[in-house]
Design goal:
Layout (H helix, E strand, L loop, with lengths): L14 E5 L28 H13 L4 E5 L9 H9 L6 E6 L4 H11 L3 E5 L5 H8 L3 H13 L5 E6 L9 H11 L2 E5 L5 H7 L6 H11 L2 E5 L7 E5 L5 E5 L12 E4 L4 E3 L7 E3 L1 H5 L4 H12 L19 H4 L2
Helix pairs in contact: 1-10, 2-3, 3-5
The chain binds S-adenosylmethionine and iron/sulfur cluster.
Length: 327
C-alpha cells in the first residue's frame, strides 16, 4: 500500500494514538486535576464504528501502527471488543495499549486473544502509600494487572515511570530490580508542562541524563540498543535482557523523528502533544462524508503538523492536560 501521509517536514506519519476516553479511575497529580469531572459528553465520543472508519482511512493512507490510550482506556466499556475490531483492519500490523493496569487483571486475556500485541503500564512507585499519594489508587491492583498480563503472554511489557525529584527519585534502582525480576522493559519519562497539573509537576522535573548517570553507578549500561521506532533512547543492563529507555521531551527533544498524530475521544485529530494544531473530524463523519473525502480531510490535517513542540520555550502554552489529548 502506498504511503500517502507525509507532513510538511518530510516525516512519514505511520502511527496513530487513539484516545478512547478522557475519563480515568486514577488522578495522577501530574496528569488530571483532583476532583476533575468536566469530561466529554458521551454523545461526543466517537462510536466504535466511527473509530474503525477513521482508522481504516488512516490504514489506506499508509498507517501501520495504532496505540490505544486515554484517559484510562479500560474504563471504556467493551474495549477488548474494539481492540479485536481494530486488529482486523487491513493494513494495521501492530496494535498496542497504554494503561494504568488497575483493570488489567480482568481484561488481559481478552485483550491478548483479541490481538493486542504489546502493553505499556504506568507505574511510578512500588510503595503502596506513595503510589496512593501520586495516583489516588491502590498499587496492589496494578501489580495484579501486571502479573495477569504476563500470564496472558504479553511480551514485551513496558513499565513507564515518570521520574520526579523528591517524589520517587529514591526508587529508580528498585524499579530496575523489579523489572529485572519480571522481565519487563523499563522506560523513564520527564514531566511535561501539559495543563496546570503538568506545569505544577515541573517543580519536580528531573533531567533523565541525571537518572542515567545515577543508574550507571550501580548497573553496567550498554548504549545504543533498539534505535529508531519510538521516542525512547535505550540502553541494556549488561548480563541481562533488561532494556531501559529514556523519554526526554524536555532535555533532548526528539521531534525530528515524530511519526504520529493523536485522535481524541471527541474525534479531534491533534498533530502534536505540545501544540494546538488540530482538525475536528466528528461533525464531518456525522454529516455523512464519503471515505474518499475522509482521506482528503486526514491529508489536510497532516499538512498542519508543526515542526516541534515548544515545551521549553513556551511552557504556559498547552492548556490541555495529558489525559485530554491521549498520552
Ligand atoms: C495520559 S496516560 C494514558 C494511559 C493510561 N491511563 C496510563 O496512565 O498509562 C499516558 C502516559 O502519560 C503520562 N503523563 C501524563 N501526564 C504527564 C505529564 N504531565 N508529563 C509526563 N508524562 C505524563 C503518564 O505517566 C502515562 O505514562
Ligand atoms: S496518567 Fe493515566 S492513570 Fe494517571 S490520571 Fe492520567 S490517564 Fe489516569
Amino acid at each position: 500500500m502506498e504511503h500517502r501521509l507525509h507532513d510538511p517536514f518530510g516525516r512519514a506519519i505511520e502511527y496513530v494514538r487513539l484516545s478512547v476516553t478522557d475519563r480515568c479511575d486514577l488522578r495522577c497529580f501530574y496528569c488530571m486535576p483532583q476532583g476533575f469531572h468536566d469530561f466529554e459528553a458521551p454523545d461526543h465520543w466517537l462510536t466504535f464504528d466511527e473509530i474503525e472508519r477513521v482508522l481504516a482511512a488512516f490504514a489506506r493512507l499508509g498507517t501501520r501502527r495504532v496505540r490505544i490510550t486515554g484517559g484510562e482506556p479500560l474504563v471504556r466499556h467493551g474495549l477488548p471488543e474494539l481492540a479485536a475490531r481494530l486488529v482486523r483492519i487491513p493494513g494495521i500490523e501492530d496494535l498496542s495499549l497504554s494503561t494504568n493496569a488497575t483493570r488489567l487483571a480482568r481484561h488481559a486475556e481478552a485483550l491478548r486473544a483479541g490481538g493486542v500485541s504489546r502493553i505499556n503500564v504506568s507505574l511510578d512507585s512500588l510503595r503502596p502509600e506513595r503510589f496512593r499519594e501520586i495516583t489516588g489508587g491502590k498499587l496492589e491492583k496494578v501489580i495484579d494487572g501486571l502479573l495477569a498480563a504476563k500470564a496472558a503472554g504479553f511480551s514485551p511489557i513496558k513499565i513507564n515511570m515518570v521520574a520526579m525529584r523528591e517524589v520517587n527519585d529514591d526508587e529508580f534502582e528498585e524499579m530496575v530490580e523489579f523489572c529485572l525480576e519480571h522481565d519487563f522493559t523499563l522506560r523513564f519519562i520527564e514531566t511535561m508542562p501539559m495543563g496546570d497539573t503538568g506545569r505544577a509537576a515541573g517543580d519536580h522535573f528531573l533531567d533523565l541524563r541525571e537518572v542515567k548517570t545515577r543508574l550507571e553507578r550501580r548497573f553496567e549500561l550498554i548504549p545504543g540498543v533498539m534505535p529508531g521506532g519510538g521516542p525512547a533512547r535505550y540502553v541494556q543492563v549488561a548480563g541481562s535482557e533488561l532494556r531501559i529507555g529514556f523519554i526526554t521531551p524536555i532535555s533532548q527533544h526528539f521531534c525530528e523523528t515524530c511519526n504520529r498524530v493523536r485522535l481524541s475521544v471527541d474525534g479531534t485529530l491533534y498533530m502534536c502533544l505540545g501544540q494546538e494544531h488540530s482538525y475536528p473530524l466528528r461533525d464531518l463523519l456525522r454529516a455523512g462524508i464519503s471515505d474518499a473525502e475522509l482521506e482528503d480531510h486526514i491529508i489536510q490535517a497532516i499538512a498542519l503538523k508543526p515542526e516541534r513542540h515548544e515545551f521549553r520555550e513556551k511552557p504556559e502554552q498547552v492548556l490541555r492536560f495529558m489525559s485530554m489529548t491521549g498520552g
